Amino acid sequence: MPSGITSVSEMQLVADTNIVVAALLRKGDTRSLLFSKKVEVFSPDRIGIEILNHKEEFMKKALMNESEFQQAVELLLEEISVIPVEEYSPLKQTALSLCPTGHEDDWPFLALSLKLSCPLWSNDSALKNQLEVKVYSTAELLKQLE
C-alpha cells in the first residue's frame, strides 16, 4: 500500500493553514473533506496561533461573532491532529531547503509531511516545485479520493 494511505478509505495528509482557514470560512469541498472519514489530517502546532493571529479578519469574512468563531475553530481543530514542534523540528533544515523562495514560513508543513511520510494538502502551487513531498490541491485530492 502506498505511503500515507492507512486503509482503502483513509489518506493521511498534512493540511496547511490556508486549507484549514478555507474550511473555517465557508462551506464547500474543503470543509466536507476535512470532516470526512476519507482523510486523516495533521497540522503543525502553530495552526491555532496562525488562526488566532488573524481572528478579527476571519470573523469578518465568515460573518461570525467571537463566540461563533471560537466554537467553529474548536470543532475544526477536533478534526485535526495537531503535532508539537519537537516532533518535526529535526527536519527543519531539510524542509527549508525544499521551500520555494518567499515560502520559507511553510517549512513546518513540509517538515511534518516528511516526518509522517504523507502528502501535503495545499492549494499553494509554488510548493509543488519541490520533489520530496507530494502536494495535493483540494481539486486533486477530490479526484484522488473518488
Explain what the structure shows.
- The chain has 146 residues and is α/β, with parallel strands linked by helices.
- The chain has a single domain (5-144), classed as 5'-nuclease (Rossmann fold).
- The chain contains nine helices and six strands.
- The chain has helices at 17-25, 29-34, 47-53, 55-62, 66-78, 85-88, 92-98, 107-116, 138-144, and strands at 5-7, 10-15, 39-44, 80-83, 120-121, 135-136.
- Strands 1, 2, 3, 4, 5 and 6 form a six-stranded mixed beta sheet that branches.
- α7 (92-98) crosses α8.
- It is globular, with a radius of gyration of 15 Å.
- The model is unreliable at 1-9 (pLDDT under 50).
Total domain modules: 1
CATH architecture assignment? 3-Layer(aba) Sandwich
Helix run count: 9
What is the mean predicted local confidence, pLDDT?
A: 91
Low-confidence stretches: 1-9
What is the level 1 CATH name? Alpha Beta
String of helices and strands: EEHHEHHHEHHHEEH
The percentage helix is 40-55%
Distance between the termini: 17 Å
Q: Gist?
A:
This protein has 146 residues and is an alpha/beta fold. It has helices at 17-25, 29-34, 47-53, 55-62, 66-78, 85-88, 92-98, 107-116, 138-144; strands spanning 5-7, 10-15, 39-44, 80-83, 120-121, 135-136. Strands 1, 2, 3, 4, 5 and 6 form a six-stranded mixed β-sheet that branches.
Could you give the topology of this structure?
Elements: E1 5-7, E2 10-15, H1 17-25, H2 29-34, E3 39-44, H3 47-53, H4 55-62, H5 66-78, E4 80-83, H6 85-88, H7 92-98, H8 107-116, E5 120-121, E6 135-136, H9 138-144
Helix pairs in contact: 7-8
